[in-house]
Amino acid sequence: MPFRIVQSKQNARLKDLRRALGHPGREARGLAGIEGRNLIEEALRAGLRFESVFIAQGSEALAAELNLPPELDVLLLPRDLLDQALATETPQPIAALIEPPDWTWAHMLGAHRKGAPLIVVLAGLQDPGNLGTILRSAEAFGANGVIALPGTVSAWNPKAVRASAGSVFRVPLVAVSEAECLARLREAGARILAATVSAAQPADLADLAGPVALIIGNEGNGVPHELAEKADGAITIPCPGPVESLNAAVAASVLLYEASQQRSVRRGGRLDHLGGQR
């Protein structure tokens, strides 16, 4: 595979990589940056379009090991030059610029989707690690997709991408206004439930087997009061221990598991305590 040699930090593609990783949500030319062999493998499996791949000198073998398409633009550059562009404390010797999936409502709620919709709505979630973890749990427990309301961190924040372990490439995610979110969900017949700490129905007593959207709020303030009032109800996770609330990603994961378990039972299956189906 031919490489393009880069020796200057002023290289246009390298600037795009720095911008995509440093200012996620304002991706350079609509591109997102990803780092590390595992994420690049996941993006290749997901069939995403690659703009460029960046490999540090001395790690050229990665191109063959990853079976990169021969027509791909691969830049070879000094390790310190690549490290300066990356976001991690201990950078890996490979990164890439990719075109993020262009998710639409049809991917999430289209007629081709089987079963009752299960949607996660993120209302002002700020921690990228939480967002990535929720995407991973959404995929693990069969959610149709995730909706990001204004104020929610970008799913292409490098920490979110890493925490998702590749789920960000596969789970439909749309960023829309609150009004559009509520209108689309009601049009799809989904029951909208706000996750709260108290004064709500326990998750195991709520019907999560039907069409449902679960609103997960900001880490510090929870679901905004005005949004919670527009929901169809509230749901909570009973905690016998002396804690006020669960981490947002943990709460979302528990609710998604409960929904998955109820749906499995309705289909005639059963989930064991490890989350596998019997």
Structural key phrases:
alpha/beta, five-stranded mixed beta sheet, Alpha/beta knot, 2 domains, seven-stranded parallel beta sheet, 60s Ribosomal Protein L30, Chain: A, 278 residues, elongated, 10 helices, 19% strand, 12 strands
Structural summary, described in words:
With 278 residues, the protein is an alpha/beta fold. It has 2 domains: 4-98, Ribosomal protein L30/S12 (60s Ribosomal Protein L30, Chain: A, 2-Layer Sandwich), CATH 3.30.1330.30; 105-266, 3-Layer(aba) Sandwich (Alpha/beta knot), CATH 3.40.1280.10. It has 10 helices and 12 strands. A 7-stranded parallel β-sheet has the order 8-7-6-11-9-12-10. A 5-stranded mixed β-sheet has the order 1-4-3-5-2, sandwiched between helices. Helix 6 runs parallel beside helix 7 and helix 6 (128-140) runs parallel beside helix 10 (248-266). The longest helix has 19 residues, at 248-266.
